[in-house]
């Protein structure tokens, strides 16, 4: 009969683990892993900030591509060659952007003289108002206040000098970013599928199916978000711009363009840009026109918040309004206007990808294609109409 094998001596670390409650062990295990994940995210954010002159144009190109790829596919289904469809997509994009810039520049140039006279008249009216009750300020006090403001600006000469010296660099960065955006958009339209296949090949083989499915779910959500957001932004810009036009406000077209661009920051952007229309009405038309313009802006925002966002955006992108406010605030704190612009699409894509992976882990007994198809239509509402093509047996 063989002798019993002696039990291996337990290490000191095992003895310590046995002496600790299970909750402490779980908390410590989670803590170091969360710290490691947080450190990785911090390093990633640091790299993004350092490479922002490359990252931001590429992100804008991805947004444009999510809008243009369906148009390219539509033109190709109309029996146009792929290269002609791509050229048309790029030409339409450049024409729209150039047309908006031309309209804004033309109106600003045509109304420059009138705006100058109205601005001087508004300044004199403000001075008269400050000299009357309830302020009863004298000319000396008003001039002293203006001098204090001027001195405060001149006191920060270093910032002004640095800003002046960086003008050439800023213009160069803008041109570089614009060209990088156009080239990135062009190559995504040409070979976006090949670029995605290469990105998926970076993952381990066992994770490629999940990465591919999560990426497709995120891309479908991003495309839906961009199309719906353009519709919402157009309605906001049309409503506020039309109100400014009928009230006879100057710069109605630039205000509408700013509202359109600002509406890509949900909930916050259109309010801020709409405030500009109210300020213009107050300066150039008076209090009652400003009050009417404020009512128009509030009405448009109520329509967006209670009709457009729930009915259109809510059914297309499943992101709670509270989450929208929080991610926009976090994005603006981290990266200013750029962060606020990309915060909501990033959250929507991340939500779709996590939803796909969660649905995928819950259906491990199903074939891989069924897992991907089922999860895709579950987490991306806009894909439900395509479910029969993804799952022909359903």
Put the structure in a nutshell.
84% of the residues lie in helices and 0% in strands. The chain has helices spanning 12-19, 22-50, 52-77, 82-110, 112-131, 139-155, 157-165, 167-201, 205-246, 252-262, 269-284, 287-316, 321-361, 368-379, 387-390.
Mean pLDDT value: 76
Q: Give the number of domains.
A: 2
Beta-strand percentage? under 5%
From the N-terminal CA to the C-terminal CA, the straight-line distance is 63 Å
Net shape? globular
How many helices? 15
Tell me the number of strands: 0
* Model regions low in confidence, pLDDT < 50 over at least 5 residues: 156-168, 362-377, 387-394
Helix-strand pattern: HHHHHHHHHHHHHHH
InterPro entries: AI-2E-like
Subcellular location: Cell membrane
Protein name: AI-2E family transporter
Transmembrane segments: 24-47, 53-71, 83-105, 174-199, 230-249, 255-279, 286-303, 323-350
Description:
By secondary structure, this protein is mainly alpha-helical. It folds into two domains: 53-202, no CATH class; 204-394, no CATH class. The protein has 15 helices and no strands. Helix 9 (205-246) runs antiparallel to helix 10 (252-262). The protein is globular and about 85 Å long. InterPro entries: AI-2E-like. Keywords: Cell membrane, Membrane, Transmembrane, Transmembrane helix, Transport.
